[in-house]
Amino acid sequence: xxxxxxxxxxxxxxxxxxxxxxxxxxxxxxxxxxxxxxxxxxxxxxxxxxxxxxxxxxxxxxxxxxxxxxxxxxxxxxxxxxxxxxxxxxxxxxxxxxxxxxxxxxxxxxxxxxxxxxxxxxxxxxxxxxxxxxxxxxxxxxxxxxxxxxxxxxxxxxxxxxxxxxxxxxxxxxxxxxxxxxxxxxxxxxxxxxxxxxxxxxxxxxxxxxxxxxxxxxxxxxxxxxxxxxxxxxxxxxxxx
Length: 241
Fold this sequence. Notes:
This protein is of the alpha+beta class.
């Protein structure tokens, strides 16, 4: 397995947003910038002016055109740093395991770099032949994976953990809730084997079916196919110029 999920960050610390691009258009740019502004305010980080961010993003996209790209906007001690590189679309289902690390996060998280604690979870999962790992909190409720939010199809309904479980409020998670009928509730560890479909939600993947958790194989179902299609249809792309 490749380390395509890893990209170097600027030196020091700060906040960041990773955005999907298609042919120079940026997916959900406004949602990402609103989340970045919220994080900057909470963490006391000076946020550049919107026109400055847009100008730098446009310059970077123009200099590094990609059919499908990974746009990263970092704001921190190094100032505003924007990069854009090729993103290789994932066409296979995800393989998950269970993380041995218990999340101790209380409430909402922010996308901060360096991102090593998240990457370490993915690295550990990949060392055992998986793509990522599900993290549980001290109440044995599902939180997220190392780099994605989760949606589970349980008893005929799509559900996702609440922010209070200790998760990052992902942009695709918000779209799933607002546009695709996904409900928010705590999901206990004992419920995971009852899920008939699971999707990984992230800004780059949008929605990726999970095909296996540990030794449990998940079949392809109409529910997961419909959900992935619905999610992709809801994502909006914008010009920043």
